[in-house]
Amino acid sequence: MKTIYFLLAALLLSSTVYAQTYTKQGTVTYKTLYNGNEREDMPLLHLQYANEVAALWRDAPEVEELIPGYAHETTYLDYSALNMYQVAVFDDGDKYHAAKSFTDLPVPELVADKTREILGYTCKLAKTVINSNTIELWYTTEAGIQGSPQPRVGHVPGLVLSVVRNGNYEQLATDIKKQRKKLKKSLMTDNLGQEVSANALGDIKRSKMIISTRVFDDEQICWGKEKMVVDEPQLDSVYHFAGGTLIVKNVKLPKTPDHYSVFAEIKQYSNGDAYDRTGSVFVIPTGRTTDFWDGLKNGINTLPIYYDVDSLAYQGVVLTDEYEPLVELVRFFTTFGINHFNDRVKIKDIAWEDHSIYKQDVSDLKTYLEGEVLIGAFIGNYDGGGHKITLDIKAYPGSFDWKEESGVQQYRQPLFNTCNVMEMGGQRYGTMFKNDSLTVDFTVPEGVTELKLRYITTGHGGWGGGDEFNPKQNEIFIDGERVYTFTPWRTDCAAYRKYNPVSGNFWNGISSSDLSRSGWCPGTATNPEYVELKDLKPGKHRLKVAIPLGAPAGNSFSAWSISGILIGEYE
Predict the structure, then answer these.
(1) Comparing C-alpha atoms, which of 219, 212, 549 is closest to residue 379?
(2) What pLDDT does residue 3 have?
(3) 236: closest CA among 255, 257, 256, 213?
(4) Stretch 69-74: mean pLDDT
(5) 173 forms bridges with which residues in the sheet?
(6) How many CA atoms lie within 13 A of 212 on its CB side?
(7) Cα-Cα-Cα-Cα dihedral of 14, 16, 20, 23, to 10°?
C-alpha cells in the first residue's frame, strides 16, 4: 500500500510540473449521417482544442476547381472568455468575422438518467428546440477537452461527440486524438478580419457565391422617352423604343457550369402610372436573317407577318425560316400604383409595400443567358412617369465544383410569342383566336429527346365580359392531335392587396385587385406551363393553339398573350 501511495504521489507531482509547461490538446473528427447512412457529399468536420480555445473547420470539398466565392470558414470557441468567433476567408482576399457570446446562445436542458457510449466515453444528454427542430447533444466530461461540432445550438460543459437533429440527421465523432505537448502558438489568430453581424456574414457568404449581373438599374419605362436608333446595339447601353415603354440592353453574361440554376429577379414600382399593366422580360434571339432588333430599328411592320383567317396582320409573332420570335423569360403584372400613390389612400390594417418583386427560375433558358445577349423589358403604359424597373440575372451553384458538367447538350427552339411588347409602336394584340387559331410550323432535328413546350398564357379584356375576368380553356394541338388542355385562372389575387394602394374599392368591400383573373394577378408573375412531348418524332410538325376569344363590347376587346418555346436534349 505504501508503494502504491508513493507512486500516486509521484504521478501527481509530475502532473503538476507537466501542466506548467504543457497544455491539454486534442483533435476530434466528425462525420455526417442521415438515417444512419454516411453522407458522402459532406466533407469531414474537425475540431482542435488547445489552451481553452477550440477551432472548428470542415475539409474543403475534393473537387477539380472550387466555385468562385467559396468561403473557407473556421469557428473559434474561446472557453476562457466564453465567446465564439465565426471567421470566413475568401479567395479574393476578403476576411470577415461575426462574434457571439456563449450567454447569447440557446440553453440546452440537461436530461437526467440518459447516457450513451461514444468512442469509449460515457456521454450525457442535453436537449433544445430551435425553429421547431429538436436537437440532441451527447457530450462527455471524461475527455478533458471541450468543443462542439455545432456550437451555435448551445453550450454544454464538456466535449460534444454527437449532435442529432430530429432523430435522423447526425454529426458523430469518429476519432479523438488527445495530446499533451507544448503549444507553439494560439489556435486563434489575432487578425479575424472585419467584424460584421451574424446575419450580415451570412449575406456576404451567399452574395459571394451568387454570380449576379445587373441588367437594368432603376430604369424608367414610360411614355414620352425618345426612341434611339442605332444599327448595332452597343454593349451596356440601354435603348428606349415604342415611345419609351420598351427598353433593350446589350449585356454580357458569364458562362457557368450546368449545375448552376439561373433566376431572373425583377424589382418594380410606380413612377406615376396608377394601373395594373402587362410586363415582360425577354431575350431577342439573333441567330437568323431577321431578328426583333430589326423591327425596333426599322419599324414593327418590317418583321415577318402572320395573317389570321380575317387577314389581320400580326408582326413578328411566330417562327419562320428567317426569324425567331422573342424568348420570354418572365411575364409579370404591375400593381395599382405601388410606391408613387402610397400616400393617396389609407385603409385600416393595411401597410402598403413600396415595390414589387418578381423572381423566377429561368434555368430552362440558360442557353440564351450566356455571352452577349439582347435583353428587353416592356411595361405597357401611356404615363409620363410610368414605372421604374431593376433586373438582375442571378446564377446559383448546385455544386462546389466549378468544373462539374452534366454533359447534356440542350435544344431550344422558340415557336411563338403574341405578347405585343411593341404595343405603343403599333404591334397588334393577340386577337387571332376570334375566328381562328394560332398555328406554327417547326422541325425537330434528329437526336433530340425529352421534348416539352414551355408555355405562358394570360387573358386580357378588362371589363365584366372580357377574357381577363372569364375563364377560357386553352387547347394545344400538334399535327391535329390535342396534346394539352387547361384553363389558366388565378384565384389568389386578394393576397396581394397591400401592393395595390389605388386599386378601386367596390361597395361590397372587395377591391378590383382582389378579383380572380385569367392566369395573372396585379403584382404577380405568371408561371409557365410545361407540356410534355416526349413521343414527338424528328421531322416537320404543326402546332396549333386554340382559345375561345370573347366578343368585343363597344371599343373594348379581349386578347391573349401567349408564348412558347420548345425545350429538349440531344442524345
Answers:
(1) 219
(2) 35
(3) 213
(4) 96
(5) 30
(6) 14
(7) 90
Helix (H, G, I), strand (E, B) or coil at 349: coil
pLDDT-based confidence at 183, cuts 50/70/90?
Answer: low
Q: Is the pLDDT score of 9 beyond 90?
A: no
Please give the helix or strand (H or E) that residue 24 lies within, else none. strand 23-34
**pLDDT the model gives residue 546:** 98
Q: How many CB atoms within 10 Å of residue 523?
A: 26
What's the rounded Cα separation, in Å, for the pair 458 and 196? 45
Residue type at position 405: E
* φ, ψ (nearest 5 deg) of residue 253: -105, 145
pLDDT on residue 6: 30
| Parallel/antiparallel/unpaired status of strands 95-101 and 194-195 | parallel
Give the residue-averaged pLDDT of 152-156: 95
**Of the candidates 345, 373, 212, 342, which has an alpha carbon nearest to the alpha carbon of residue 270?**
342
Closest CA to 545 of 491, 486, 496, 499: 486
In which element (H, E) is residue 207 found?
helix 198-209
Let me know how long the chain is: 571
Instruction: Give per-residue pLDDT as tens, 278-320.
Output: 999 999 999 899 999 999 999 999 999 999 999 999 999 999 9
Distance CA 256, CA 212 (A): 11
At residue 5, the pLDDT reads 31
Strand, helix or coil for residue 10: helix
Q: Are 377 and 249 in contact (CB under 8 A)?
A: no
- Give the separation between CA 563 and CA 319, rounded to whole angstroms: 11
Residue 505 has what pLDDT? 87
CB atoms within 10 A of CB 498: 16
Phi and psi torsions of 260, nearest 5°: -75, 135
Q: How far apart are CA 33 and CA 24, in angstroms?
A: 29
Q: Which grid cell is 9?
A: 504521489
Q: C-alpha grid cell for residue 91?
A: 479567395
| Cα within 13 Å of Cα(283), Cβ side | 24
Neighbours of 198 (CB within 10 A): 15
Handedness of CA 227, 228, 231, 236 (dihedral sign): negative
Q: What sign does the dihedral 40-91-55-135 (CA atoms) show?
A: negative
Measured CA to CA, the distance from residue 316 to residue 293 in angstroms comes to: 11
